[in-house]
Amino acid sequence: MTQQYDLPGLYQFLFNTPEGGLRKMLVDGKPMTDVHFQLLMKVVKACKEEEFVKHIENQTWPKIKISPAEMKIKEHFWKDCFITFSARGILNPAQPKKEAA
């Protein structure tokens, strides 16, 4: 599922865009809530690009402190994020890998 998307580009967008702007863009309560956003920012800040991509692909988590509210959404977190990213148009298709000549 995730290999069809430009996950490094997504990471760069999330990492380099000011949080206030991201919050306005992403948080709408269906399905991205403020708790989703807080957890997403923790993951982005705790990871380098390669780690972020691996966590998304494997639906895993970096070693971060998770609040009780974040623990409640953890099971569906990545799915909810992908729904929101797709709806906002920030999840771009992956570029085809060039083969060595």
**Unreliable stretches covering 5 or more consecutive residues:** none
Q: Helix- and strand-based class? A: mainly alpha
- The SSE order reads HHHHHH
Major sheet = none
Note the gap between the termini: 28 Å
Tell me the number of strands. 0
Q: What is the overall silhouette?
A: globular
Q: Helix count, per DSSP?
A: 6
Radius of gyration: 14 Å
**Helical percent range?**
55-70%
| Overall pLDDT level | 87
- Strand portion, in percent? under 5%
Secondary structure elements and their pairing?
Elements: H1 7-16, H2 19-26, H3 34-46, H4 49-58, H5 68-73, H6 77-88
Helix pairs in contact: 1-4
Brief digest:
The chain is mainly α and 101 residues long. It is 58% helix and 0% strand.
Description:
The chain is an all-alpha fold and 101 residues long. It has helices spanning 7-16, 19-26, 34-46, 49-58, 68-73, 77-88. The longest helix is centred in the middle third of the chain and has 13 residues, at 34-46. The protein is globular, with a radius of gyration of 14 Å. The model has no long low-confidence stretch (mean pLDDT 87).
